[in-house]
Amino acid sequence: xSGENRDLLERLYETIVSRKGGDPAVSHTAKLFAKGRAKIxxxxxxxxxxxxxxxxxETRAEVISESADLVFHLLVLWADCDVTIEDIxxxxxxxxxxxxxxxxxxxxxx
Length: 110
Description:
The protein contains six helices and no strands. The protein is mostly helical. Helix 1 packs across helix 4 and helix 3 runs antiparallel to helix 4. The radius of gyration is 16 Å and the shape is globular. The termini are far apart.
């Protein structure tokens, strides 16, 4: 897909993937990859906590800012795990129209 036809998240994801193996001295994303999956997951968890705190105690602007941080670090984690946005879309499509209770039961059977 060409630049403007791709979703912003897809473009960001592609940029993140392109930083794998990059120079950690010049790229925050490359530095995350160099530190490994455990550190990436830890950072994503920290951002999730910061978002939760912002949702309870901060302004709408802080919720937006922390959400963007969380999405960025989630995309880094997906890239490190070789999970694509399309993989997540496919899973969401599979779950569409299914109640949360049904979906949880289906996961327990597998």
